[in-house]
Write a structure and sequence with these properties.
single chain; mainly alpha; 10 helices; globular
């Protein structure tokens, strides 16, 4: 049966793209949960660790007091109210009514309810169907571009991770290790287990993956420390290093200049537009992860075409 499905998808790419679109819509619903819950889970874990460390300090130990204006961290009670990606059930933020399965169908439920809770009619953010639809469309695009095979499966998985990281970084300016590091290791393992696929951007050879991961991390690490020495400020977070390393592990070191140029250019342009038209504070931090994710996704599909186009426009290649 699997052979028949594989032949169908290989012969009819539209069927493959359509199937991926439907599956990705459901994955997009899960990514909404990850984007919302994972930062809360991380904060609870940090607070629990702080409480454990505080309890381990002997009473006679002298501890310098925090400034009076600094609020004390609330006690973490991880066992009293279990909070994971699976529990408790998703509920309306306004009335706390659990969401029924029929009201949790990606995109369609939001449209049927006209963007409002079925119980209290409170508005539901359009971001939820937007993430679901973006996950479906981008995944289907990947499936159509790569065709049925290992490269498409890898690219779709990378796409899902990049969407989750983008949402979390926009909300919290945080790129969790629980996503970036598995993404990095998966790229290295795919290079060993699958190896380079002719004509595809990923996976790459083990040598290119290892060099790409190291080059991705060390390049931004060097920029970070150089910027801090020159300005006394931190220009980016360590999560950006790990995300860039993960992109290098999946696509090799040769594509990294394209990714960083696209990300830096898009970030600079958008930052200027926000300052000019929205009066954004120039000193306010801006997450860099979404630009790296978008640039990495574009390079995954059109990296070689972008390089060829730049060389042609610059006159370096005729």
């Amino acid at each position: 049966m699997f052979t028949d499905i594989a032949v169908l998808y290989a012969v009819y790419p539209a069927w493959f793209a359509g199937s991926v679109f439907v599956i990705a819509l459901m994955v997009g619903s899960f990514l909404n949960v990850v984007i919302y819950r994972l930062p809360i889970m991380m904060e609870r874990e940090w607070r629990a660790q702080i409480e454990e460390l505080s309890a381990a300090i002997p009473p006679s130990t002298t501890i310098s007091r925090a400034p009076a204006s600094a609020p004390a961290a609330p006690r973490a009670t991880p066992n009293a109210d279990r909070f994971t990606l699976a529990t408790p059930r998703s509920a309306c933020p306004a009335c706390k009514t659990p969401i029924k399965p029929i009201h949790n169908v990606p995109v369609l439920s939001w449209l049927a309810l006209r963007g409002r809770c079925a119980a209290c009619r409170a508005p539901i953010s359009a971001r939820y169907p937007a993430v679901e639809l973006a996950t479906g469309l981008l995944s289907a695009w990947i499936a159509w571009h790569f065709g049925f095979g290992a490269a498409a499966c890898c690219a779709v998985a990378v796409t899902w991770a990049l969407i989750a990281l983008t949402g979390i970084d926009i909300d919290h300016q945080l790129l969790p290790d629980s996503i970036t590091l598995p993404l990095l290791w998966a790229g290295l393992l795919a290079a060993v287990a699958i190896g380079p696929v002719p004509g595809m951007a990923l996976p790459v050879s083990p040598k290119d993956a290892i060099i790409g991961a190291a080059a991705g991390y060390l390049s931004l690490w060097a920029v970070f420390h150089a910027f801090r020495l020159l300005t006394g400020k931190e220009g980016m977070g360590y999560g950006d290093f790990k995300l860039f390393a993960a992109l290098g592990a999946w696509m090799g070191w040769k594509i990294l200049p394209v990714v960083i140029l696209l990300a830096a250019g898009a970030g600079a342009c958008l930052g200027i537009l926000m300052i000019v038209f929205r009066g954004r504070d120039r000193a306010a931090p801006m997450p860099f992860g979404p630009y790296l994710a978008a640039a990495g996704w574009l390079a995954m599909l059109y990296g070689q075409q972008l390089v060829d186009g730049y060389l042609h426009l610059s006159g370096l290649r005729h």
